[in-house]
Design brief:
With 403 residues, the chain is an alpha+beta fold. The chain has a domain at 162-402: Alpha-D-Glucose-1,6-Bisphosphate, Chain A, domain 4 (2-Layer Sandwich). The protein has helices spanning 21-76, 81-123, 147-163, 165-168, 217-231, 344-350, 360-402, and strands at 142-143, 181-188, 197-207, 250-254, 257-263, 269-278, 285-291, 294-295, 308-315, 323-332. The strands form two sheets. An eight-stranded antiparallel sheet has the order 2-3-10-9-7-6-5-4, sandwiched between helices. Strands 1-8 form a two-stranded parallel sheet. It is elongated and about 135 Å long. Residues 126-135 and 240-246 have low confidence and may be disordered.
Length: 403
């Protein structure tokens, strides 16, 4: 007899105690939040679609209204009085501003014209067919304080000196001759007791510069200006190696023109207008300078000389790579602030030369000897300064090329 088979095992039933109530509540909250967010996004999307439709309809209505207005205005061909008034007011404001600028420019031009008329009336005795070297009026050197007139005057003075450069250096040795030299000529007027004279100083010297790269035009011009400053005692004391920079005496630099204004170490007022040029034929760099005797921008004057200076610097085939600098310094007697001539006794006293107790002829001879000796000494010092500066610049240039 078989034993009764056991009944199948029953599936276990879960009770409330077997579930985690906290987890169920958290899951329910997340489900509700997701449902709420989904519903709100649908609402926002619907609102944006409605807003876009409203704006599109408004834009279409405005475009239709604008087209109607434009068609009406074009049909009648007239603008409203407000639009016309605004347009006329704007146009009037522009015209008034332009008129004010024109009136100011007219006043400036009238002032410049009066200044030029005064200069012509004071310095031109009559019409001249061409510049006469024996007439001083065409070389009158006065500068106005007006910026435009002043710059025009500076260019006029320096351009005239530049045009004379070829004739000035005509008596120099030919370009092939590169030896250095220096001389001074002092000529007194026919009136032996007037004390009026003219001195002409000429010099030629070499500047060391070898290599494939030539010095720049700015450097060549600056060497001439450094020599001029050293010659006239305008460099600061102890400045034996001037750099390519603006010195205390330089002022009013405008393109190729500049001025040197200072009181020299020997008491003379230096107010030179200078110009830098390149000779189109020889390619030499030419620097010219002229003392400005009457300058509206200078309040204090002492004695001065109506000096003129020419420099010409270039390289020649037989110069062994050196650059030759030529200089002519034309200097008349000194004049006082009142315009009178300074006696040679007073001039010699500045250089610690005593001419007292001598006859007129002996005074002139002694003054001439002192001028030659002092001029040669000053020229030697100025040339040494420039040669040292050139050597320094050349050494730095070679070092830069080697590096």
């Amino acid at each position: 007899m078989q034993a009764p088979s056991s009944p199948p095992s029953a599936v276990p039933q879960l009770t409330t105690g077997d579930l985690d109530v906290d987890l169920l509540m958290i899951a329910d909250k997340k489900l509700k939040r997701r449902t709420y967010n989904r519903d709100m996004m649908r609402v926002y999307a619907k609102e944006r679609r409605q807003e876009k439709m409203i704006l599109t309809m408004q834009a279409q209505q405005l475009e239709a209204a604008l087209a109607t207005v434009v068609a009406r205005v074009r049909a009648c061909g007239a603008l409203g009085w407000r639009d016309i008034a605004i347009a006329l007011a704007d146009d009037q404001a522009v015209k008034e501003s332009h008129n004010a600028k024109l009136r100011a420019q007219i006043q400036k031009n009238r002032a410049r014209l009066r200044s030029l008329e005064t200069w012509v009336a004071a310095n031109v005795c009559g019409p001249q067919a061409c510049p006469n070297p024996h007439v001083s009026t065409w070389r009158h050197v006065s500068l106005s304080s007006d910026p435009v007139t002043r710059l025009t005057g500076q260019r006029w003075i320096t351009q005239r000196l530049f045009l004379q450069a070829e004739a000035i250096f005509h008596a120099f040795p030919p370009d092939a001759a590169t030896s250095s030299f220096h001389d001074i000529e002092v000529a007194f007027d026919d009136e032996v007791d007037s004390g009026m004279y003219t001195a002409i100083q000429r010099a030629q010297f070499q500047l060391p510069w070898t290599g494939a790269t030539p010095p720049s035009s700015a450097l060549l011009f600056q060497w001439c200006h450094v020599h001029l400053q050293a010659l006239l005692g305008l460099l600061p004391p102890g400045r034996s190696h001037p750099r390519l920079s603006t010195h205390p005496s330089e002022t009013e630099v405008h393109g190729h023109t500049r001025m040197h204004r200072a009181r020299a170490s020997f008491g003379e007022t230096i107010n030179l207008v200078c110009g830098d040029y390149v000779d189109p034929v020889t390619s030499h760099r030419v620097v010219v300078a002229q003392q400005v005797l009457a300058d509206d921008c200078v309040d204090t004057w002492s004695c001065q000389k109506n000096r003129r200076v020419w420099y010409s610097i270039g390289q020649h085939a037989k110069s062994r790579g050196e650059w030759t600098c030529r200089m002519v310094h034309w200097t008349p007697h000194a004049v006082t602030v009142a315009g009178g001539a300074v006696s040679i006794d007073d001039e010699a006293r500045v250089w610690h030369v005593d001419l007292s107790g001598e006859t007129v002829a002996s005074k002139q001879a002694a003054f001439r000897r002192a001028s030659v000796e002092i001029g040669a000494s000053v020229m030697e010092q100025a040339t040494a300064v420039v040669r040292a500066a050139a050597a320094t610049e050349h050494a730095e240039d070679l070092a830069a090329d080697a590096g």
